[in-house]
Every structure is written in C-alpha cells, then in structure tokens.
Amino acid sequence: MKINQISISQYKSLGRDVKIRFLSNQVVLVGRNEAGKSNVLEALSGLRIFEDMGNDVLPLANKNRTLNENNIEVAIKLEFDANDVSLLDDIVSIPDEERVCEIVISREANGLMQKLGCMFSGIIKRDSVLSSMCQHIQGLLSVARKINFGDNSEYRAFNFWLENYDEYYIPNLKRVVLDWCVNHILPRVSEKAVKENHRAIIIKFVNRLDELYAKFRKIVPMFFRFYDEFELHSTYRLDEIKNPRNYGETNLLGLDRYLGAIGLEREDVIYALTNSNQSLRKGRQSQFILKTEQIVNEFNDTYLNGSAKVRIMPSFDGDVLSFAVVSDGLYDTVLMGERSTGLRWYLNVFFELKRANAVRNYVLLIDEPAIHMHVNAQREVLNLFDSLANGSRYLLFTTHSPYMIDVNHMENVKAIIKDNGVARISDIHCSRGNKGAQDAWTPVCEALGVSLRYNVGPCGDRMNLICEGPSDACYISAMMDFLGISEVFRPNVIAAMGVRNIHNIAAILLGWGCEICVLLDNDSEGATERRRLLKYFKDMNVNSVRIVYVDESAGATIESLISTADCEKLLGDNSTCEELRGNKILNACMFAKQIRDRTFSPDGETQDNFRHLFANIGVDRTLIEANNRECYENRNA
C-alpha cells in the first residue's frame, strides 16, 4: 500500500482541498504558531477506513465557517500492488487501472460518509455472492416502499445504504440494515415463506459485506496519534486502575499503551494485584515480567544499536504496580520517571508501535515530537523515524525545531501558511514569498545553517544565481562589473558554500517563490549534483529552473574561463588556470580587486568566455554586447 496524497477540506482553519503530497514515507509540517499545523493532525486522528467512527471524528462543529461549503472532507489517494491484493484472499481479479483509487471520508449533516474508491467499489460490484442477491435486495426495497414510514430517518438511511452499498461503506451495518429490516419491514410481510426468504437473503447480504470490509481493512491505512505527554508512569495504585474517572481520563493512557504492547489488559493488572489464590496471582505477575522482558529486548536490539541496554522491571507490591529501569553497567535501579526524557520518549513510541503491530499499514501522527529533548537526542529521533516509517507505514509530524528537519530530504518538508484566516499547505518549491511563507521556512533555514540576511540574501524581483562557492561569486561579480552589466539586469549571486549545499539553498529559494538558476562546475561533483537537482525538480514538478555548467568542457571550473594570457598577467609567466585553483578564494579576490582598482583588464578571450556564460545564465545577450568601458569607468569614477 502506498499513500500518494491526502487532501483535507474545511477542517477548522484549513481551506478547500488542502493537499499533502507524499513523496516518501515521511512528511514534516513547518509553520508559525497558530498557522494550523495541529489542525491537520486533528483532522486525521481517529480515521478508520472500513470501520465505524464516532461523532468525535471530523465533527461539523469544527467546520471552517469562513468558507461557504457544506462538508468537512478528507480524501486519501492510495495505490495498491500485487502483495496487497494477495492479502484479500479469494479476491484476485482487480484491473490495474483500479489499483490507484481515492477514498473520501466526509462529515455531512446526516452523518459520516465513507465513499469507496474505485478498487473497493469494483470488488463489491463484481462479487458473485452479492451479485446473486441484487434482485432480492431490489425486491426487498420494493416491499419497504409500499409501507408508509413517513419521514422516518432510519428508513431513509436503510433505503440509502441498500441502494448505494457498492459506492459507500455502510456504518453500523447490522443495526441499520439487518436489525431494522427484521424489526420494521419483515413484520409487515404477510406470507411466511416470502418473509423467511427475505430474512435469509438480508442476513447473507450483511454477512458477505462484513466479510469484504474485514478483508479491505487488511490493506488500508489506520491513522493514529502519538501523544508525548501520555507516558508510562513510575507507579499505579489499584484504585487508579479500578476507578479511572476519579483520576482523569488520560491518567491511564500510558499504562494502556504499555499493556497493549505486551498483549495484556487492565483486568490483568487487577488480577495480578488482587487474586486471592497466591499461585494464580504470582503466575500472572510472572506473565508481566516475561512479556516485558521480551518486548524490551526487541527495543534494545532495534533502537539502541550498541548503546547500553536497558531492562524494565514491573513489580507488584500490595496494591501498587511499579516500573523500575536499570541500564547495563549501572548498578542503581531507578523508577521509570527518574530516567531521561529521551529514553522514556523512545520507549513510549516503541510501545505505541508495538500496540499497533496487528495493523499492517498505518499513518503515525505526532505533534512537535521530542520538543523537550536536547539537540543530539532530537537528531537521534530523526534516525528513529527512519525505522518507524517504511514500507506501508507512514509518519506525519509537525515541528518548530531545525534539528527535526532532515536536510537531505527537503522534499518531505511542507509549510502550512495562513492567509486571511484560511490555511493552505505548500510544497517547498511553490510558496509565494509572502511573510507567512518566510516565517514558515525559518526552521528550515536554521536547519541548513542559512541566515536569510547574510548567507542567502534572496532577491524577489531578479533571478537568483546559486553558484558553488565564494570564488565563483567573486569572478562573476567582477566580470559583470567589468562588462558594465547594470544591477537591474544582473542576477543576484549567492554562494552556496559547497556544491552539496546547492540543493538545499535551491529548495529554500523556491519555497520563498524566488526565480533561480544554478551554476555548476563541469566536474564529477558538479555532475552528481546536477543529477540530484534534476531528480528533485522532477519529483516536485518544477520545470522552471535552469542548471548551467560554467563551460561544456569536461573538468571545467570558473577558473577555466580565464585565458592563459590573463593567468600569466595575474600569477606570472607560464601560469595556468590550474594554479588559479590552488588558492581559489585568495586568487578570486585578487582578480576582483585588480579589476575594481583598474590595474587589470581581462583580454578578449576571457571576456568572450564570460559573455557566453552570462548568456547561458539568462542575462540578455544584447545587454552584454551593448556594454562599453565608459559605463564601467563612470561606475568607478
């Protein structure tokens, strides 16, 4: 199962059709406070495809009132492969064109609707068991229509679901279809044989749909939210477990997470604390110890990667269940709450995932993960995320922290930007450069070590030329001065401080809505970066960025544009451009200073080389050809 895109409409501050594109298994949302990041997670929390959902999912009370639309809606675009189809048991004939489908969940005035995607709708329509009952179902509907139910809402629901069973998931299937039919329609049928036939058909119909829903649930994603604050406590008293309402509904959520992970329940805790038979009580306590040891061993092997292993020891003393932790090499045993925030966070995420292990596919939602952890721990969490999100498992999280952004995967970063009270989500390449967008990208800049004012200095009304380093910027600026290219027409030159950082700078500038061109050396590193950029721009559907080599000759760098004669003037007889590269920045600064001081004039070959480069960059050739020395001299008079 692959998630291609999730769209949310009209939930709280979110506008119409707010799209989240999944280019990998992770998406990170950045944005200023109150932009609506948490609203995205809230809209998705608790979604259960092909399952009944409560009134707390997408409630109409949370509808965006600034827009004149009727419904809150979440559309999930999914793609399935042969492995997914194999999990559907006897359902094997699915046309390829149906394996990409969109499931739409919407909160409407008459309830929560799940519109099936084409694949699931097609399976139901082609199902031989259901097909054999179509005429009987239509006959049952005809019987119902002859009965005067008036404006009974339950009858309207019964009628709607049976007429559209191949287009929508039917919630509370047995109650709204089977029970209502048996209790309200069949008693009005006088002929016993007809009544029994209808009864048998509706039971068979409901059971088959229920079977199909169970199969479908194997391959669709479950959305669930991880809450940092609901962690496993050091101790739980018996009264807390037996009477949770007296202590707050969230008090036991961390315990429930742990119990779900080891396959036990609250009743097992009560049993282990209170059973009058000592042998049975001790046996249940041993179960806790064994299951906890097994799951913590898996945690050690999976996530600690050679670090000191930990052991968690549940103990039962009177009416108290407590959890102690000890690490290899440490002889002191401490209560869970006394261990580091980072370790407790790791463990709680792990328990949450183990609790969900019965679910093959999931989308894990986390708001501001690891916010209280130190920098190195936050970076480690990113590594943990790589193991949490793979295959058919996805992760969507929000952050303000630059340390929670993987600069090698900027395509995963989305900005949520609010304009006039309505929030939208932007891929990094298609922000419009407004204040909200710049605020949204601030943590991304910090993650890259980029200062808006000093390092990047983007220009919104001119092309931004990103080159590899300061020496490139020196030569380019100096030759533009020499050729008399006006500030109005020349590009804004930005040194990326290394070829490997060009990709990140380009992503940021696209996020600010800037026009960019990338200049690369024609060497192996430049070729590698060019391939990387082309793939990135293709993935992001960006086709407006020009990528230019300084020269088409293999191995060419910016110094290759300086003629041999000019190299000798600058460095002495028999010098070559290779020697200019020897102390790149110093030589580039010397070149620029001598031009600025008018103690050196590049010869015709050097000028032509740079004219050709500037034309390739996009500086109008007529402007270059029209330059004259008078312009340059006036500029420096």
Jot down its keywords.
637 residues; alpha/beta; 3 domains; 6-stranded mixed β-sheet; 26 helices; 19 strands; 43% helix; disordered C terminus
> Structural class given helices, strands, pairing?
alpha/beta
Indicate the radius of gyration in whole angstroms: 33 Å
The N- to C-terminal Cα distance equals: 68 Å
Could you list the spans in which at least 5 consecutive residues all have pLDDT below 50? 448-456, 628-637
Placed side by side, the strands forming the largest sheet appear as: 7-12-13-3-14-15
Textual characterization of the structure:
43% of the residues lie in helices and 17% in strands. It contains 26 helices and 19 strands. Helix 18 runs parallel beside helix 23. Mean pLDDT is 84; it is low at 448-456 and 628-637. The longest helix has 27 residues, at 278-304. It is globular, with a radius of gyration of 33 Å. The chain has a six-stranded mixed sheet, sandwiched between helices. The protein has a five-stranded antiparallel sheet with strand order 2-1-4-5-6. It has 637 residues and is of the alpha/beta class. The protein has three domains: 2-17 and 43-217, no CATH class; 230-360, no CATH class; 448-635, no CATH class. The N and C termini lie far apart (68 Å).
Outline of this structure?
With 637 residues, the protein is α/β, with parallel strands linked by helices. The protein is 43% helix and 17% strand.
Describe the protein's topology.
Layout: E1 2-9, E2 18-21, E3 26-30, H1 37-44, E4 72-79, H2 82-86, E5 100-108, E6 111-115, H3 118-126, H4 128-131, H5 134-145, H6 153-163, H7 173-185, H8 192-217, E7 222-226, E8 235-237, H9 238-242, H10 253-262, H11 266-274, H12 278-304, E9 310-317, E10 320-327, E11 334-335, H13 341-355, E12 362-367, H14 375-388, E13 393-398, E14 413-419, E15 422-427, H15 435-440, H16 442-447, H17 452-456, E16 464-467, H18 470-482, E17 492-495, H19 502-511, E18 516-520, H20 524-539, E19 546-549, H21 564-571, H22 577-580, H23 584-596, H24 604-617, H25 621-625, H26 629-635
Parallel strand pairs: 3-13, 3-14, 7-12, 12-13, 16-17, 16-18, 18-19
Antiparallel strand pairs: 1-2, 1-4, 4-5, 5-6, 8-10, 9-10, 10-11, 14-15
Helix pairs in contact: 6-7, 7-8, 10-13, 11-12, 18-23
